[in-house]
Amino acid sequence: MDELRASNREHLSLLDALRRQDTAAAGEVARRHVETLHQTMFVGLLSTSADTGTATSSN
Fold first, then answer.
1. Most exposed of 9, 21, 25, 55 (fewest Cβ within 10 Å)?
2. Distance from first CA to last CA of the chain, Å, rounded?
3. Residue 50: CA atoms inside 13 Å, Cβ hemisphere, count?
4. Using CA atoms, how far apart are residues 13 and 6, in angstroms rounded to an integer?
5. Of 58, 28, 29, which is closest to residue 43 (Cα–Cα)?
6. What angle, rounded to 10 degrees, do the helices at 23-40 and 2-19 form?
7. What is the model's pLDDT at position 45?
8. What is the structure's pLDDT at 36?
């Protein structure tokens, strides 16, 4: 739940920056948000899966 609340706060920060037409702030909020998503939600999705026979790039 804490991660979801933090994500929602980031969404609000992004909307605020966009409303102020502060593209630099909006870009930074979006960059951090996507970085966090990659570190949390997508963990393990880009690894080799023996049971499906698929392989993707490793980071």
1. 21
2. 27
3. 0
4. 10
5. 58
6. 160
7. 61
8. 86
Give 10-residue mean pLDDT values along the chain (59 residues): 85 96 97 87 58 50
Residues in the chain, total: 59
Which two structure tokens, joined as six digits, stand for 44? 């393990």
The kind and range of the H/E element at 7 are: helix 2-19
How many DSSP H helices and E strands does the chain contain? 2, 0
Q: What is the pLDDT of residue 14?
A: 96
Q: Which two tokens stand for residue 27?
A: 């870009």
Contact of 22 with 30, CB cutoff 8 Å: no
